[in-house]
Amino acid sequence: MTNSGKMNAVICTKFGPPEVLKLMEVDIPTPNADEVLIRNYGTSINTVDYIHRGGKAPKVAFWGMRQILGLFLRLSFGGLRKPKQKIPGCGFTGEIISLGKEVLDWKVGDHVYGYSEKGGASAEYMTVSASVLAKKPENLSFQETAAVPGGSTPALIAFRDLATPKKGDKVLVIGASGGIGTFAVQIAKNVYGAEVTGVCGPSNIEMVKEIGADFVIDYTREDYTKSDIKYEIILDIVSAQNLSKCKNILASDGTYIANNPISSPRSIFHIMTNNKQFKTGPADESAAAMNLICEWIESGKIRPVIDSVYPLSQTVEAHRRYETGHAKGRVVISIE
Ligand SMILES: NC(=O)c1ccc[n+]([C@@H]2O[C@H](COP(=O)([O-])OP(=O)(O)OC[C@H]3O[C@@H](n4cnc5c(N)ncnc54)[C@H](OP(=O)(O)O)[C@@H]3O)[C@@H](O)[C@H]2O)c1
After folding, report:
1. What percent of the chain has pLDDT over 90?
2. What residue owns the CA closest to ligand 1's atom 24?
3. What is the pLDDT of residues 232-251, one digit of tens each?
């Protein structure tokens, strides 16, 4: 720990575009009895960071839902006028520096990773509840590990909880080259043995093949919803389609998984009418989920794909890159 008791952190004092984020020197936090203090080596950007910083609903939310959801999200994150949690970043990875007195399962020096809903990961040190700590994958560097939380877990729940592919099932992943899609392709293929087709733009076709997709469709050249192929599972990560548009390519007992249930009134209707072909759900960011992801990484089934790495001082640029909507895997902030 530094002698000064101070650390570098990115602070967000008002809602707004990436430029509201400022690098500052602040006090190193003190862990509560059930928390640990970690020296944090990295984080990565995802939609939650956009919501925390912007105080808005995700961009895919449909008109009308955007205002209501934006207000709901501000209230649930505890900051109606300005962010309550001043330091953004939920995914973390680092080394335990000190333990609260009730923490018995971990020791100083352990290498950990995970996802802390209260944020704080855009900083050199952070306090984290011991209940969300998972063991860091041994075969990844801290920088690589920082790319895992937040991206892997929506893909995990899609195939573990919402619709599990059987060996050989045809799975279509729409948005296959992004932060979540790159994990989804590998989980469907290497964990469940599905035949995977990834949908992405022209510059990412080779990469999506490299991570294991059997087939890749360039959405700028081909309308795959008009194909004769029937998929047992369609995972739409970026709300490019909806269940109605995919009916033609969904097997009669198949499942369409919406990563964003708030993208259209029709999606809300499917939820309210309990449509058996439509599934959705929030990511599971628990320690158990992160430990399972760690097992898959250590056994070589999945690995993070990294679009770009920024130092903490360039967090504004990292947010801008993520918000292009065309990242090739994950956007990482490395905190050396
Ligand atoms: N359910 C949950 O718990 C949960 C959790 C977190 C996030 N989310 C949602 O996940 C989404 C973000 O996912 P992400 O972080 O993976 O995004 P991302 O990293 O920005 O990646 C988006 C990818 O989508 C591809 N894409 C863009 N337009 C497309 C189209 N028309 N058809 C097919 N692919 C297209 C892009 O590929 P190219 O660059 O090749 O065009 C890009 O690689 C957000 O909508 C967010 O709300 C849900």
Report:
1. 85
2. 175
3. 999 999 999 999 999 999 99
165 and 133 in a common domain:
no
Rounded to an integer, what distance in angstroms lies between the CA atom of residue 215 and that of residue 197?
Answer: 5
240 and 168 together in one domain? yes
Distance 32 CA to ligand 1 centre (A): 36
Same domain, 157 and 170: yes
- Per-residue burial over 187-199, b if 16 or more Cβ lie within 10 Å, else e, is bbbbbbebbbbbb
> Is the separation of the CB atoms in 247 and 230 below 8 Å?
no
Q: Can you give the residue range of the structural domain that contains 234?
A: 152-280
In a domain? residue 298: no
Atom index in ligand 1 nearest the CA of residue 219 equals 32
For atom 22 of ligand 1, the residue with the nearest CA is 178
Q: How far is the CA of 227 from the centre of ligand 1 (A)?
A: 22
Question: Which pLDDT band, with edges at 50, 70 and 90, does 70 fall under?
Answer: confident
Residue nearest to atom 11 of ligand 1 (CA): 238
Asked if 92 and 166 sit in the same domain, the reply is: no
Q: Evaluate whether 229 touches 199 at the Cβ level (below 8 Å).
A: no
CATH code where residue 94 lies: 3.90.180.10
Scanning the chain, the segments in alpha helix (DSSP H) are 47-54, 65-76, 142-145, 152-157, 181-186, 205-210, 243-246, 265-272, 287-298, 315-322
Residue 3 CA, ligand 1 centroid: distance in Å = 42
Domain count for the chain, please give it: 2
Residue 131 lies in a domain: yes
Cα(186) to centroid(ligand 1), Å: 16
CATH number of the domain enclosing 241: 3.40.50.720
101-114: pLDDT as tens digits: 999 999 999 999 99
